[in-house]
Amino acid sequence: MIEVRHLTKRYGDTLAVDDLNFTIEKGRIYGFLGPNGAGKSTTMNIITGYLASTDGSVTINGHDILEDAEAAKKNIGYLPELPPLYFDMTVKEYLAFAAELKKIPKAERKNQITRVCATTKLDAVQNRLIKNLSKGYRQRVGLAQALLGSPEILILDEPTVGLDPKQILEIRDLIKELGKEHTVILSSHILSEISAVCDYVLILSHGKLVASDTLENLTSLMQGQNSLIVTVKSSKEQLKEILRGITAVKEFHFMGDCEEEHCVKAEIKTDPSSDIRELLFYQLAEKNLPILAMQLVRLSLEDIFLELTADDQAAKKVITGTPSSPTENADDTDTDTTESDTKKGDNENAVHM
Ligand SMILES: Nc1ncnc2c1ncn2[C@@H]1O[C@H](COP(=O)(O)OP(=O)(O)OP(=O)(O)O)[C@@H](O)[C@H]1O
């Protein structure tokens, strides 16, 4: 439906969008997630034909957004971050004006305006000046404008920014409703927003795509990134020997100083499906090495989002498609640990946290 290939945008020296590739399929609500400045608005402006790319292509239902702009744009309804509303017009006047700009045939305009006002629940304020509407209602006017012409795809840039909590819930409900009839792409820098509304997530960081998957898969992938933090009364060598013998241990590293004497603290990463707590307990007990503390840490969607978008390293960790995709980072980025180790004979490609 939408094919984005090698999309790149430079503003002078700033690389705002860096070789993006993704496909948007019909009938889903896509979340475009990333911190401020990640390149979300730039990408949306290019997809909707408001901005030219430096390189790469965007096709919408087979129509190139630059070469076949009119046919491509017919498929898209766009709500920009700052909708271009005319405050001195009434809602009805503004929608009539927008319908004309979209070249909707005159005979169809009235019906279309009635329909979009009903969908966005604007009936009661149709004759009010836009400047007298609340921000939530102005956002509905922007949405109504996007719905004119019955486009298959709706692209909404930060649709809830600046709204109060009640208005946010109302707009989210409206977007979910619209998702039943349209393919929706929604950008946000708020994770909870994406989790509440979308079923597929594209995470952008520094202009690059760092994750692309269903919300369900991303969540299970994240749950797979469990780690265990243990404090054991032993030497590093003794604990290393035991951890190297447990197949489910993918990697481990020693953490800072222990409060107790003669003990070590380590963070251990395991296979997604394995819980090694009991096994570790018995093996340590067999060697007379008491466990002083053990804590299972499950990463939340938020932790992963922060990890993926935190810094330039994020661009090297790409998660796409399946929950089993590797998330290894080949760089040694350990900063707050005193020593690190990986399984399988300190494989140079293996990673620690
Ligand atoms: N017209 C412009 N001229 C120069 N640099 C720009 C321009 N527009 C955006 N940028 C830069 O491009 C990068 C991406 O910006 P963009 O607005 O696309 O990000 P975003 O993810 O939408 O962020 P936000 O949520 O803050 O809108 C940023 O570094 C921004 O400063």
Automatic annotation (TrEMBL):
InterPro entries according to UniProt: AAA+_ATPase, ABC_transporter-like_ATP-bd, P-loop_NTPase
Domain of life from the UniProt record: Bacteria
Keywords: ATP-binding, Nucleotide-binding, Transport
Residue spans of biased composition, Acidic residues class: 329-339
Domain ABC transporter as annotated: residue spans: 2-231
Region (Disordered) residue spans: 317-353
Residue spans of biased composition, Basic and acidic residues class: 340-353
Gene Ontology molecular function terms on file: ATP binding
PROSITE patterns hit by this protein: ABC_TRANSPORTER_2 (PS50893)
The UniProt record lists the keyword Ribonucleoprotein: no
Family that this chain belongs to: Belongs to the ABC transporter superfamily.
Protein name in the entry: ATP-binding cassette domain-containing protein
